[in-house]
Design goal:
Order of helices and strands: EEEHEEEEHEEHEHEEEEHHEH
Shape: globular
CATH architecture: 3-Layer(aba) Sandwich
Number of domains: 1
Radius of gyration: 18 Å
Low-confidence stretches: none
Distance between the termini: 17 Å
Structural class: alpha/beta
Largest sheet: 7 strands, mixed
CATH superfamily: von Willebrand factor, type A domain
CATH topology: Rossmann fold
C-alpha cells in the first residue's frame, strides 16, 4: 500500500481546500515578515504547486505526473480556484498560465554558520483572499465530488491515492460535527488499489501558543469541539509516512493523525512537505 510509482499514465492527485474567510485577515509570522494568514497560506500553497511543476520538468518538457485542484471557501460557498473553474489542472497547463509573480526573500544559514539571503520568484496561481463566513461543508462536498470522479477513472485505479490538504483557521459556519465528519469519512473511504485518500486538516494560527502536529491521540489536542472535529475528520497517517513524522516528533509512538492544530506558517510548510512525500515516487 502507498507504494505505487507515479507516471504519466498513472498520475496522483493533490487537492487544496483553502479557508478564505474574514478571520484569515489576522496576522501571522512568515520568516521575518508579519503578513495575513491568507497571504501566508497562499504563498505556501503556491510554493508547493511550484515544486510539483518543477518535479515534472524533464529535458523534453513538462511531464504531467500530477493532477492538481484547489477549492477556496468563503462567504456562503466554495469555488474552484485554478484555471477557469475546472476541477483538476495539469502541471503543464499551470506552467504556461499567466499569473502574478512576487519575489520573496528568505534567510538561509549555511553549514558554516554564515547567513545568506535567497531570493526566489513565486507565481500566484492562487491569490490570497479573506472575507465572510467559513463554508467548509460546501468545500468538502466539492472535494468529495471531484475526488470520487478522479478515483472512478479506469486510468487511475492503479495510481498512488489522492492527497487532500484542508487549511483553515476556524469552525465551519455551514455544518455541524456529524455533517462534517460524515463527509470526511466518505472522502477517506475513496481511493485506488494502492490505498485510501489521505485527508489532512491543518489549523493555522497567528503563531501564539503551542502547535500540535500529527497527534498520536486525542490526549495531545486541546479539549474543544473544534479540535475534536478536525481530529475526527483527519486520516490516520499510513505507516509509510512515520519516518518523516518522527523526524519532527522524535520519541513519539505512531499511529499519527493527519492533523495540525495551532500551527505557524513554518509548521504548515513542514506538514505539507510530509503530506506531499509521494512526489518522490515519480518513476
Amino acid at each position: 500500500m502507498y507504494s505505487a510509482r507515479i507516471t504519466r499514465l498513472n498520475p496522483t492527485a493533490f487537492i487544496f481546500l483553502i479557508d478564505r474567510s474574514g478571520s484569515m485577515e489576522e496576522k501571522t509570522t512568515f520568516g521575518n515578515e508579519l503578513i495575513t494568514k491568507a497571504e501566508a497560506v497562499a504563498m505556501i500553497t503556491n510554493m508547493l504547486i511550484r515544486e510539483l511543476i518543477n518535479r515534472c520538468r524533464k529535458e523534453d518538457g513538462i511531464m504531467d505526473y500530477f493532477e492538481i485542484a484547489a477549492i477556496g471557501y468563503s462567504g456562503e460557498k466554495a469555488s474552484m480556484l485554478l484555471g477557469s473553474g475546472e476541477s483538476f489542472i495539469k502541471p503543464s497547463t499551470l506552467a504556461q498560465a499567466k499569473v502574478r509573480k512576487k519575489v520573496i526573500s528568505r534567510e538561509l544559514v549555511l553549514p558554516n554558520g554564515t547567513s545568506v539571503i535567497n531570493n526566489s520568484e513565486i507565481k500566484y496561481w492562487i491569490e490570497p483572499r479573506c472575507e465572510g463566513n467559513t463554508p467548509m461543508k460546501s468545500a468538502l462536498e466539492q472535494a468529495l465530488e471531484i475526488t470520487s470522479r478522479w478515483c472512478r477513472k479506469q486510468s487511475n485505479h492503479a495510481s498512488y491515492p489522492p492527497t487532500i490538504f484542508n487549511i483553515t483557521d476556524g469552525e465551519a459556519t455551514d455544518g455541524d460535527y456529524e455533517t462534517l465528519t460524515e463527509l470526511a469519512s466518505e472522502l477517506k473511504s475513496l481511493g485506488t488499489e494502492d490505498g485510501k485518500t489521505l485527508f489532512m486538516n491543518i489549523n493555522i494560527s497567528s503563531g501564539q501558543g503551542n502547535s500540535i502536529l500529527f497527534p498520536a491521540s486525542k490526549n495531545e489536542i486541546p479539549p474543544s469541539r473544534y479540535a475534536d472535529i478536525l481530529y475526527d475528520m483527519s486520516s490516520v497517517m499510513p505507516t509509510e509516512y512515520n519516518e518523516a513524522i518522527l523526524a519532527i516528533k522524535p520519541g513519539t509512538i505512531p499511529p499519527f493523525r493527519a492533523m495540525g492544530m495551532n500551527t505557524s506558517a513554518s509548521d504548515l510548510i513542514d506538514m505539507m512537505n510530509i503530506g506531499s512525500r509521494s512526489i518522490s515516487r515519480i518513476l
